[in-house]
Amino acid sequence: MKDVEKFFRYLWRFNAVAMAVIGLGVIVAFAGFLLSALWSAPRSDRAGTFVAVPKSARHGYTYGLGNDAFRLAGTSEEVFVLERWKGDDSPSGARNVNLLVVNGDTAASHWLFRGNAQLILSRDEVHASDIANYNALSPVTALVLTVADAGTDGAAKDRESLYYYRVGGGDAVRFFTADRILAGRQAGADKYLVIYQDGGAAAAGLFSTYDFRLLAKKPVPQIPE
């Protein structure tokens, strides 16, 4: 009887030790998993407020350079997008408010807009050659930006404007405003075509790619029923 009791006593001790070892192994494995997940998690390079934005212009927003920088083909200019989001929230809902152009040969840089009271809705490139015959060697001569002024809440106001930036130039220049800019694209080597809506009617406008003055405009027919 004593031998049986002794056997069960040893068995209980063995089970306790085994359970402790298993439990310790689970804890170590879980800690290793957490460390691995934290180490491999993507780190945002946009955290914090971009120091190039004056404190007086922040108004409760956080600013950072986005990850969608691009080069203007056939030039030495690299373009970085300045993003803005509310407070310290995640930048997943960031809005584009300015563009930083950096010369890849000299490292000189400048902003396309004097302030950040606008939302950049879209951008398009103008090339030296006809877009229909575009190839990778056709240099970019200008950027066309669709922009909306932003209200105090950061949302876009009612009307939208088109700006152009001439490669090698300074500020972006406003050349057209309408209720809505519906579409735009280069039309030949020297014209830029815009479809827009203004005063409840849609129209097509042709602009010169040299100085972006209006060359012609015609009404767009209603969509067939």
Structure write-up:
The strands form three sheets. Strands 1, 2, 3, 4 and 5 form a five-stranded antiparallel beta sheet that branches. A four-stranded antiparallel beta sheet has the order 6-7-8-9, with no helix packed on it. Helices cover 17% and strands 43% of the residues. It folds into two domains: 41 residues; 165 residues, no CATH class. The radius of gyration is 30 Å and the shape is globular. The chain has 225 residues and is an alpha+beta fold. The longest helix is centred in the N-terminal third of the chain and has 39 residues.
Compact overview of the structure:
The protein is 17% helix and 43% strand. The protein is an alpha+beta fold.
Strands, helices and their partners?
Layout: H1 2-40, E1 61-65, E2 70-71, E3 77-86, E4 95-103, E5 109-111, E6 118-127, E7 140-150, E8 156-166, E9 173-178, E10 180-186, E11 191-198, E12 201-208, E13 214-219
Descriptive key words:
225 residues, alpha+beta, 5-stranded antiparallel beta sheet, 4-stranded antiparallel beta sheet, 17% helix, globular
The gross shape turns out to be globular
Measured between the Cα atoms of the first and last residue, the distance is 98 Å
Number of helices: 1
For the record, the count of structural domains works out to 2
What's the overall average pLDDT, rounded?
79
Q: Cα-atom Rg, whole angstroms?
A: 30 Å
The secondary-structure element order is HEEEEEEEEEEEEE
Approximate helicity band: 10-25%
Strand coverage percent: 35-45%
- Strand pairing plus helix content: what structural class? alpha+beta
Q: Which regions are unreliable across 5 or more consecutive residues at pLDDT < 50?
A: 33-45
Strand count:
13
Please describe the biggest sheet, giving its number of strands, its sense, and whether it closes into a barrel: 5 strands, antiparallel
